[in-house]
Amino acid sequence: MTKKILIVDDEPNIVLSLEFMMKKEGFAVAVAADGDAALEQVAAFAPDLVLLDVMMPKKSGYEVCQLLRADPARAGLKIVMLTAKGRETEVAKGIALGADAYVTKPFSTKDLVAQVKLLLA
Amino acid sequence: MLAGWIVVLASFAYLGVLFAIAWHADRRADQGRSLIANPTVYALSLAVYCTTWTFYGSVGRAAATGIGFLPIYLGPTLMMVLGWFVLRKIVRVAKANRITSIADFVASRYGKSQLLGGMVTVIAVVGVIPYIALQLKAVSHSFSILAAVPEVVMPRAGEVPLLQDSALYVAAIMAAFTILFGTRHLDATERHEGMVAAIAFESVVKLVAFLAVGLFVTYGLFDGMADIFARARALPQLERLLTASDTAAGYGSWAALTFLSLLSVLLLPRQFQIAVVENVNEAHLKRAVWLFPLYLFLINLFVLPIALGGLLHFGPGGGVDADTFVLTLPLANQQGALALLAYIGGLSAATGMVIVETIALSTMVCNDLVMPLLLRRGWLRLRERTDLSGLLLEIRRWAIVVILMLGYAYFRLAGEAYALVSIGLISFAAVAQFAPAVIGGLYWKGATRGGALAGLSAGFAVWLYTLLLPSFAKSGWLPDDFMAAGLLGIELLRPQQLFGLTGLDEISHCLLWSLLANLGAYVGVSLWRAPDANEARQAGLFVDALRAEETGHWRGRGAVGGGTAAQVAELLALAGRFLGPDKARRAFERHAAARELSLDRLTADASLVHFAEAQLTGAIGSASARVLVASVVEEEPLGRDEVMNILDEASQARAYSRELEQKSQELTLATAELRAANERLRELDRMKDDFISTVTHELRTPLTSIRAFSEMLHEDPRIELAERTRFLGIIVGETERLSRLINQILDLAKLESGRADWTSVAVDLAPVIHEACASLSQLYKDKGVALTLEIEEPLPTVMADRDRLMQVMINLLSNAVKFAPAGCGRVKVGAGRTVMLDAAGRTEAALRVAVADNGPGIRPEDRETIFEKFRQGGQDVLTDKPQGTGLGLPISRQIVEYFGGRLWLEPVAAAEAGAHFVFTLPLPSGDNAEQQKA
What we know:
Chain A is 45% helix and 21% strand. Chain A is α/β, with parallel strands linked by helices. Chain A has a single domain (4-120), classed as Response regulator (Rossmann fold, 3-Layer(aba) Sandwich), CATH 3.40.50.
């Protein structure tokens, strides 16, 4: 069964590249440009994994992550945080909020794909 | 029968015994087992009052005037019986104030006046010298009489050559003996226990000797008192002696003599020394009050029998001086041993008087005359010498020698003209001059130093003129015409009939005038001016001396004797208040341990008081410590210097604390400033962190896209051409964005640090606006946005950098086109004159440029945030993601503000959509008008 991935980022070009990449790897892909849209898409699309940008309008990636983790129905959902802010405190914060992985931009496409595959295996 | 050498030997043996007694008493005193701490010894030592004058002279006076000798003993008896409270008060005051002599007493009472002390000393020395002469005369005569045995001859001192004069040798021996007695060592309290013991012994000796002669005469030569009086009454010349002269002058004379001797028993330097300074215990007075009068009674009991017996035996005018009856009666009856005893008794009376008197005088001369002068002159660098005791003793020794030699000189000059009693009375009259100052000072607080000085001077002058000079004149040493004719021939000034006063004997006459002058001046001058602070304080100490006892401790007791346990506790509490109770207790325990005592067995003696004071000094300064400790142990009263010291210390402490307060305020202020500065630094640090974090984010975002697409293209060669082209386009776009971002960041950093290169020239903004619009026209055309310009002609020039203003215009125009709706977008640019407020609130002419679009507009709450770095407007929708860097507006605002203008977002009515940016630039004053004309 095809694994479903939700891509959340407010930067269109990044969304574009991630979407292309994940589709090529054979995942079903949905996109969202801000936190609220991300939550709607999680409900509608029911992804297995979310690639979640941190710095977004309306709701930050942290907030979205927290809300998702607070929902017991989504316990199996994998969350990979993506951020251009690479400070250690921010990595620690993401992990503490329940993210499964934390990837710093700009990322290596190969590594990211490997990470996603590992989480969905 | 009595060889000269026996007399000499007996004399020296007796002096040797005296010295042994004194030495023994001194040793006992050093061991703390005082021989004289005994009321009987005290009372006997008071009998130093009875000198050779009593021993020989009373008989002489009785032989001349009958009971006329009595007032000299009635006075002291009255003094002791009726005036004991005065004496008690003097003793109390003297102890409290560490008084060492009568001069010290007077000086201390009137504000510690050195002048007054010196004056009292001079009067005492001058006044007492005749009295000393009297002793020399008596001893030398008695020696001559004994040496001339078996003849009964009357010596004539004036006729023998100086070196054969026994009186000179008596004086020299007495000087040596006194020096041995009184100046062997120095005692701070000026007390001489050995001397007192010897004096008490002498009193017994002279009483025993006199009683022995009296008993011999009364019961050996005659058949008892009744027999003598009966025989005397039989002779008309002698009967006269047994009746008191019933005249006014006679009574006056009695009263005067009684009064005089009453004062003398108190005021003679030796009496003051024995009764007050040498007093060990105030309680001893109680016995002295009756024992001393009893002594006087006993020693006078046989005066009249001996006088009458002598007159009966030798016959009136029988060639024997009545002054010598005590010796000559035994001699004439072959009673050599009794005569020798009588001689020893007389010697006893003389040595006692001379020793005490000269010691007292030498102390006064040393302490109140010589030392103040030496100290004042700064001779010998006295203040630098630590041990002055040798010097002090030397001064006293010389004073003793000089006083005795003066006494001898007086004896040679004037001695023969007077009977013993008369010479003594001259001295009495002199010291009576101290009475107003001493007794007045004890009871009248209003008395001043000036009053005491005036009184003493006046009284002394009158005494000198009416008594001493006549005594010289009578002995032929001074021309005596002033006696008869008065000074300068003015009869009213005749010394012994002053202002025509006649009918009085010379003593009463002198006493009347001198005390009148003395008292008048004393009271008058005292009333003239109120006592100053110093005098008032001392007056309080003296006048209220007895009252102090009821309210508190005996001053000085704490320091001199052993204080009470309560005082130790008080001292400890006092120290504890300043040092902390535990620390104070530990210090006291250490002090006790050092003296091998436990704390509760410690007494508040001088050592502990000193220790406590030292402890406190460290905490509160020496003067304050002194006062506090004194308040507990009642030490010496406060001096003015000490008060000044306290004030000094207090004001220093206050200045210091004010300084501290100020410093602490400054510190608080500095701390607050530092905290604020620190806060600002933290804030700046946070802002820098945020900025770097934001910049990093902004740089990584395009990089992420570039890397992702590049990797995909690189790894997958099978990507279709169309896709490939699109991806490469994105990469190029993101690279441009990255470059733009980096440029703007550098630009902003330059602007903010003030390192940007600015030019400031006159700029006409119209061409700048046109140029900016032209450069963006393709963009507007592509998006289908209409651009309209409304520019006033001509525009005034502004002082600015043309390129920077171009940057601002391009930024605003590109923002506008970015947000204006595609196809139907409208952007309007307006420029014209306006008026703006400068920083000081004044209006000034300005240029106004507005750029308005019809885009979605900016929410009111974002109106200011859009000017912050990396805050972009219109981020609501993914598709509307602006392509800017978020730095355009902050940079534009920096530029406009640099040239003194403002850039803001004008609020617009709800009906009018779109953003409406406005900036103003001030017009340079003056030259615009010219530009406009041109």
